[in-house]
User: Fold this.
Amino acid sequence: MLLTRAWTWLANNDRQLLVCFAAIGGLYALVEYQRVSSSEQKQAVARYVELYGAEHIMAARVALDAYQMDLVDQKVTAQTYDHKVGDKITDQRYVGQVLTTLNFFDALDICVASGECSLGAACEYFFSDAEAFIQNNRPVLVRLLKGSEGDAISYVSDFAHNRCRSHMPGYCENVENLSVDCLDYKQN
Assistant:
């Protein structure tokens, strides 16, 4: 008797059951797609992590960092920094190192913007380096593209200041000389 009622109920509700199972299947497919997509996005960021350690990019980063350490040794002040670093625009080797690093961050931003790279993973791994690159090289970056259309550092600044915006307050709390990028986050 119970079995007969169950079959009758199933026969009377077959369309509702079909819709219900189709919705469940669709939700499962959506969740599975998101999981796979997230994994692929994180793998894309991992490829950028690997590229960031590639010889040509690493050599450029090390040279730029060494120059920054020389500025510290020379006791360059916040007042003389822009002039001192800006003068490096005539140093082809230095400009090449800046462009190598800039091209890396431009490509990373494009990857994140396209959805191919995970925003969260990219910000966690690259935000500090991107922001330090902007701060340390702003005088040269601005001069490099002066007169061109758009911002001299549009992709890298888009990555650091827009896509990774949630990381800015923590960065600005820890920066010694207040950056122009931190004015919106300055503690009153």
About this structure: The two ends are 77 Å apart (CA to CA). The chain has eight helices and no strands.
